[in-house]
Amino acid sequence: MSSFSRVEIRRCRPLLGTYVELTVEHAGDAAAHEAAGRAFAEIATVHRLMSAHDPESDLARIQQDGLATPVEVDPRTHEVLALAARLHAESDGVFDVTVGSELARRGLLPALPLAEGAGRGGDVRLHSRHRVSLRRPARLDLGGIAKGYAVDRAVSVLRHCGARAGLVNAGGDLRCFGPTPRAIAVRPPDGVGLVPLPPVRDVAVATSSHVPGRGIPALDASPHVHGGTREPVVRAFGVTVFAPRCVLADALTKVVLATGRPDHPLLARHGAWALLVPAAQRATDAAQPAGPIA
Fold this sequence. Notes:
Elements: E1 7-15, E2 18-26, H1 29-50, H2 58-65, E3 71-72, H3 75-90, H4 100-105, E4 124-127, E5 131-134, H5 146-160, E6 165-170, E7 173-177, E8 185-186, E9 195-196, E10 203-208, H6 217-220, E11 237-243, H7 246-259, H8 265-269, E12 273-278
Antiparallel strand pairs: 1-2, 2-6, 3-5, 4-5, 6-7, 7-10, 8-9, 10-11, 11-12
Helix pairs in contact: 1-5, 5-7
């Protein structure tokens, strides 16, 4: 019997407001490219469904029609909102996908008068048959969780297509699978240089940070909002979370960043761990996570 022959390809496309890079290890070149194409298509679908900018997305339909009657959404949107609701409850409201109004006021989302309101995460009601309604007007934003979910969906597609190993990296939210260890690095919050981490395998990693001071209001406005206080989150450090799934890593970075707690109990509850990444001048002391990474 012949031994397993394999090829590894790398492809990149602009999606999710960033560049998405795929590394695919497969039995043959054609199969690898086919798997990558399907993974990109799945990411594009998640982007279309959960965009806070697209007036025809599932989020827009919930905001415009969800007060009158439950709105049927794609099962993927319903799944993300269900996890968001769980994290909202478990974090005592720190993680909240109804902070879109605050982001719009700071110019980070387009103004949509019909969608603004005082609703909180608990006002998003999930029903059977993938339906969603709102108890109060609310502006939804899944920017703190959907990118990680898209990465997970892409990994699922690659595996379904027979990929032996691979990596999906969406602007720093990434997940690798298979026996091949992957060398990764995180960018410090000031964007200067990279902090290398020990090689990882079969894990998801996400990083969140924001350092103002560039003098441009649209760039200085923090994209992170504390769900409880509704105040912008600005820290002198970034947060990197390692988790079994990228959707969890993505969301939990927001909880750690908002609370300043790399030991937040939600991490252990979801099999995750975190590290803090300071600015570049001190970044060489920051590359040790609070747990194993392989």
